[in-house]
Amino acid sequence: MRRLSEALIGDVIPPERECSDEKCPWHGSISIRGKTLVGRVISTKMTGTVTVLVEYLHYRPKYKRYERRRSKIHAHLPPCLDIKEGDVVKIAETRRLAKTVSHVVLGKVR
Length: 110
Ligand SMILES: [Zn+2]
Hints:
Blueprint: H1 6-9, E1 32-43, E2 49-60, E3 65-76, E4 88-98, E5 101-108
């Protein structure tokens, strides 16, 4: 298994089996750079890709308050991970893997 940095792994549960997916962050050769995000899986209907809903707070200076924002992110799902809808996962930014995919799922968060 490839060595991912502690900062990247955090409280992510590592996969229990190997896979031969080049785009797997654990067993492939994909380079991870940029942001990591935590979100909830809301769709697993695509093959090899999941939709992750990420919620965050955005500051509005005029009202001195935060507003809630959300965005749906498509992330590549390597075959060594068992992810269901509703799971909270950590995703990391990587190069563009498909037209709408530039993130990869690292795994479920404890
Ligand atoms: Zn893998």
